[in-house]
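From the shared-data thread, chain only:
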Amino acid sequence: MSTTGAVPEFLTAFLRARCPDIDSVGVDDDLVDTGVLNSMHFVELLYLIEAELGTEISLDEVSTDDFRTISRITRRFFTPGQGLGATPKE
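Structure, as tokens:
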């Protein structure tokens, strides 16, 4: 597993709830190509990550590639020192 930190439980629960017919998603499986993450789910996921972090994510400082796999999401947003591209919510 190439994830640098533990996968947040809320993330796997969110993905399972949106795509219950998929048995399991590997941390390096492409969430878009497998159909787990579509455009509506992406927006929900973005808000969920913001709520979990207590920050607003600047779309100017992230790319869609940051959300392609569980490993990338974990590394980008939940690994200390990686930089979030986020600003504190007021």
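The radius of gyration is 12 Å.
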